[in-house]
């Protein structure tokens, strides 16, 4: 009997289904992968917290049956940072879209990476603001069309893995919603990795991005991901820009170790205060 | 044998993983990810509609399914998943 229950269901607030995501949207796929990673790593769900901001991807926190937080626009990282500071034993996951995380919350993103806050950040990048009607996003590829760029986007988009890498993230990977097994593996890898871990997931937005750019539906985008993505582990993040309809370099780009905020604080204060400093738990086992 | 755990009765002579797909028709939004990326081509879109007006998937080659659950990982609407059968599942009868 239990076989008839989708393995995702125990992790979701099923009373809120059906969700708002459009047919062909890739966000549900990311949720599937996260649940698979949770099941495989056997972590205690009471020690997992999901935070997200505003937007289509921001709905993940609302649908997830864990201690979840649906924050104000762009502020998912500050909330998550505070949550982690106060509860160092929590595994804090941050699901946000590109608009929320990189545009409105861009400053928080680079600073959390700089100080190596112990967060797992998953950015579902669909190149547009889906929920509000397809405005041009800071990730929109050059020449792509949007409601606020009817003649084509002319501003250079962010290269998210490079942004995270140069800001100091300890783990940077990029996958598409086609690469489900690899995405699960990446999520498993960062489940217990201390520090600022960043995964960019390229996802189709059939309603606001694909349709406006004549790129077909969600399935067409998935076929495109399958055909034109190249797995290059350890690629130089400067070389992984995305162009409209061009190849997508995916893979695990960065995996390094740096002390987290709480570890750095402990070490620094211990150095200056000596035994007067009462250690604060870091939540990190090295 | 090198591959343990396949000692159930009536095991086919050719070693092949078997699986079963469970579909929640009313939840489906007809994106066809499962149909497109099923490695065994065991699925197709139904001609009939569900209540919301989408064409949910149906199993067309049940014997081809190996229970890899790739459909379950792709499905953005949590409407389908696969499980592996045989190899230990039948133990309790």
Question: Main interface pair?
Answer: A-B, 34 and 24 residues
Q: Which structural class is indicated by helix and strand composition of chain B?
A: alpha+beta
Give the fraction of residues assigned to helices of chain A: 25-40%
In round numbers, the mean pLDDT of chain A is 92
Give the CA-based shape of chain A: globular
Q: Which class of chain A in CATH terms?
A: Alpha Beta
Number of helices of chain A: 10
Task: Flag low-confidence runs of chain A.
Answer: none
Helix-strand pattern of chain A: HEHEHEHHEEEHEHEHHEEH
Total count of strands of chain A = 10
Identify the CATH homologous superfamily of chain A: Thiamin diphosphate (ThDP)-binding fold, Pyr/PP domains
Strand content of chain B: 15-25%
Query: What average pLDDT do the residues of chain B reach?
Result: 81
The biggest beta sheet of chain A reads: 8 strands, mixed
Strand fraction of chain A:
15-25%
Side-by-side strand order of the widest sheet of chain B: 1-4
| Count of alpha and pi helical runs of chain B | 2
**Structural class of chain A, please?**
alpha/beta
Spatial separation of the terminal alpha carbons of chain A: 41 Å
Describe the structure in your own words.
- The mean pLDDT of chain A is 92.
- Chain A contains 10 helices and 10 strands.
- The N and C termini of chain A lie far apart (41 Å).
- In chain A, helix 1 (27-41) crosses helix 7 (180-191), helix 4 (98-104) crosses helix 5 and helix 5 (106-114) packs across helix 6 (160-167).
- Chain A has a single domain, classed as Rossmann fold, CATH 3.40.50.
- Chain A is globular, with a radius of gyration of 19 Å.
- With 286 residues, chain A is an alpha/beta fold.
- Chain A has an 8-stranded mixed sheet with strand order 2-1-3-4-8-7-10-9, sandwiched between helices. Chain A has a two-stranded antiparallel sheet with strand order 5-6.
- Helices cover 11% and strands 19% of the residues of chain B.
- Chain B has a single domain (18-92), classed as Alpha-Beta Plaits (2-Layer Sandwich).
- The two termini of chain B are 24 Å apart.
- Chain B has helices at 33-37, 70-74; strands at 18-23, 43-45, 57-59, 80-85.
- Chain B has 93 residues and is α+β, with helices and mostly antiparallel strands.
- The chains are: A alpha/beta (286), B alpha+beta (93).
């Amino acid at each position: 009997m239990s076989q008839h229950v989708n393995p995702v269901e125990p992790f979701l607030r099923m009373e809120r289904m059906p969700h708002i995501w459009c047919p062909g949207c890739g966000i549900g796929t990311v949720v599937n992968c996260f649940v698979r990673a949770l099941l495989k790593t056997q972590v205690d769900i009471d020690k997992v917290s999901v935070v997200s901001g505003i937007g289509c991807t921001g709905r993940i926190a609302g649908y997830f049956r864990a201690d979840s937080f649906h924050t104000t626009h762009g502020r998912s990282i500050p909330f998550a940072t505070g949550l982690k500071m106060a509860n160092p034993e929590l595994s804090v996951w941050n699901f946000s879209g590109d608009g929320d995380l990189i545009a409105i919350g861009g400053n928080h993103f680079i600073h959390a990476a700089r100080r190596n806050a112990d967060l797992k950040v998953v950015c579902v990048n669909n190149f547009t603001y889906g929920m509000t009607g397809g405005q041009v996003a800071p990730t929109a590829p050059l020449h792509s069309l949007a409601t606020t760029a009817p003649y084509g986007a002319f501003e250079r988009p962010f290269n998210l893995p490079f942004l995270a890498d140069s800001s100091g993230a300890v783990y940077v990977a990029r996958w598409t919603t086609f690469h489900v097994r690899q995405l699960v593996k990446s999520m498993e890898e960062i489940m217990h990795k201390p520090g600022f871990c960043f995964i960019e997931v390229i996802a189709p937005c059939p309603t606001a991005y694909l349709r406006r750019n004549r790129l077909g539906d969600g399935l067409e985008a998935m076929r495109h991901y399958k055909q034109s993505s190249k797995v290059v582990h350890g690629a130089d993040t400067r070389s992984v820009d995305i162009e409209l309809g061009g190849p997508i370099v995916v893979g695990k780009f960065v995996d390094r170790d740096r002390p987290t905020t709480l570890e750095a604080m402990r070490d620094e204060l211990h150095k200056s205060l000596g035994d007067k400093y009462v250690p604060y738990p870091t939540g990190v086992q090295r | 044998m090198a591959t343990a755990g396949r000692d159930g009765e009536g095991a086919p002579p050719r070693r092949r993983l078997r699986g079963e797909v469970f579909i929640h028709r009313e939840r489906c939004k007809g994106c066809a990810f499962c149909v497109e990326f099923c490695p065994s081509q065991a699925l197709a879109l139904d001609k009939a509609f569900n209540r919301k007006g989408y064409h949910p998937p149906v199993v067309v080659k049940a014997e081809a399914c190996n229970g890899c659950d790739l459909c379950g990982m792709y499905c953005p609407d949590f409407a389908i998943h696969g499980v592996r059968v045989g190899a230990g599942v039948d133990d309790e009868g």
